[in-house]
Amino acid sequence: MAKELKNLTKRSENYSQWYNELVVKADLAEQSAVRGCMVIKPYGYAIWEKMQRTLDAMFKETGVQNAYFPLLIPKSYLCREAEHVEGFAKECAVVTHYRLKNDPEGNGVVVDPEARLEEELIVRPTSETIIWGTYKNWIHSYRDLPLLINQWANVMRWEMRTRMFLRTAEFLWQEGHTAHATAKEAEDRTVQMINVYADFARKYMALPVVVGVKSETERFAGALNTYTIEAMMQDGKALQSGTSHFLGQNFAKAFDVTFINKENQAEYVWASSWGVSTRLMGALIMAHSDDNGLVLPPHLAPIQVVIVPIYKNDEQLAAISEKIQPVINELKSLGISVKYDDADNRRPGFKFADYELKGVPVRLAVGARDLENGTVELMRRDTLEKETLPIEGIAAHINSLLEEIQQNIYDKALARQKEMTYEVNSYDEFKEKIEAGGFMLCHWDGTPETEARIKEETKATIRCIPLDGDTTPGVCMVTGKPSKQRVVIARSY
Predict the structure, then answer these.
(1) ω into residue 390 within 30 of 0, thus cis?
(2) Collapsing DSSP states into helix, strand and coil, what is residue 484?
(3) What pLDDT is attached to residue 6?
(4) Are the C-beta atoms of 128 and 177 separated by less than 8 Å?
(5) pLDDT digits (tens, 9 = 90+) for 465-490
């Protein structure tokens, strides 16, 4: 067994340490020289690229186009929407000067005090303000609507306590910003996009999610409504995995974005914004992986099939390569990403352990005996089961097996979520169950005071009011006051 696996902490011993080690050992990312930031390594970035390509296509299917807006935002822009600036003020990185100079005392470079900016610039924590400042120039008539724009970008939120992929000062994401003629159109788009995220999570990430609305306290700063997808990690904690916001006319009014309607009257436009980030990488790792390393759903795995030849000399390698090349060609023709690892600088056992650690869904091993028998050894990463199969027809078998693995990973995660979701009716029962983790379906009286009490006393938060949840009225588990429906409460990342 490779050294990497011997040293990987078990989930049952320390889940947090297991996660941190796995990110590094599986070659996904590493800490950078800048505190709170990370370097995403090629293997990790390859997963993000597959997420990006898939989501980008899904967005474009709904009529969205990509654009790009500046990294730096004038401070005055953030001041225009009071609730928005209050929500992000403590997380902003601020640019105050535009030049450095050599230190007269010979100590490297220093900030030139004479190069202070007239107005400070904010490194974008999110782009609503700079985008709506731009939309004022783009939108004049109802004929310019709807405007459906997305950008793939990086953002900066000054985080002190960070964890790679889950919470970093700088992270990658996409942010969609749309403008509409009516409130209904804007809210319909908000709901449409949260459902796009839910479809992506379920079909590609093999991740069951709960779709719902955030409480008023948990809403995005400046939004009238925030929709969310909440995923359960293996330790029972929730991870907010994507959000979509109905912004009403708040940003249109702040930036004076109006349009002439069909009745020739001026109106403020209606808005939505929505985004997911590299936090999805954290969700992928924590939801599926095991004590042997990553378990990647085939739909997002950079390498779906790895083939390792086992040989003693160049002659055997040449014979194996000749036999396996038609299989490689057929797999590629089926759209399956395959790697043939015939490198002679690592032993087969190390390669097996390394690809297991990296979560490659299917591994084939071919040796001299397989060559004689016309067989291959196949191992599937989700179950670690091995079987010897005829090489004839192996590509078609793998094609269907990958879909089986994808479904199995989803089913396993869904079974865990169902097993760790509880209907709870009393506050005492809630406080006891929340210690073990899971999603608690509870009645809540709808007040921020009760919400704050739950958070202070149990470190759990209202994750969402489910869109398809139990709407039977009841009484709040904390106060006994009337409750419209059950909400999802959990501890979270």
Answers:
(1) no
(2) coil
(3) 58
(4) yes
(5) 999 988 999 999 999 999 999 999 99
Buried b (16+ CB within 10 A) or exposed e, 44-67: bbbbbebbbebbeebbeeeebeee
pLDDT digits (tens, 9 = 90+) for 435-460: 999 999 999 999 999 999 999 999 99
Q: What tokens were used for 307?
A: 């083939």
Model confidence pLDDT, tens digit, residues 215-260:
999 999 889 999 999 999 999 999 999 999 999 999 999 999 999 9
Calpha distance 469→487 (Å, rounded): 8
Pairing of strands 238-248, 270-277: antiparallel
480's torsion region: left (phi>0), alpha (psi -120 to 50) or beta? left
Angle at Cα 296 formed by Cα 294 and Cα 297, nearest 5°?
A: 160
Q: What is the pLDDT of residue 1?
A: 46
**Mean pLDDT (whole number) for 363-387:** 97
Class of domain 305-416: alpha beta
Statement: residue 2 has pLDDT above 60 = no
Supply the DSSP string of 281-293, one letter for each residue: HHHHHHHH-BTTB
Q: Does the fold of domain 305-416 match that of domain 3-72+126-288?
A: no
Question: Does residue 5 surpass a pLDDT of 80?
Answer: no
Q: Regarding the domain delimited by 3-72+126-288, which CATH topology (the fold level of the hierarchy) does it fall under?
A: BirA Bifunctional Protein; domain 2 (3.30.930)
Cα 485 from Cα 59, distance rounded (Å)? 32
* Cα dist from 313 to 192, 322, 349, whole Å: 58, 15, 17
CA distances from 58 to 53, 180, 192, 204 (A): 9, 20, 11, 12
Query: Could you give the angle at the alpha carbon of 328 between the alpha carbons of 327 and 332, nearest 5°?
Result: 115
Written as six digits, the tokens of 21 are 């080690």
pLDDT of residue 347: 94
CATH level 2 (architecture), domain 421-490:
2-Layer Sandwich (3.30)
Hey, where are the domains in the chain?
A: 3-72+126-288, 305-416, 421-490
Tell me, yes or no, if the pTM score tops 0.85: yes
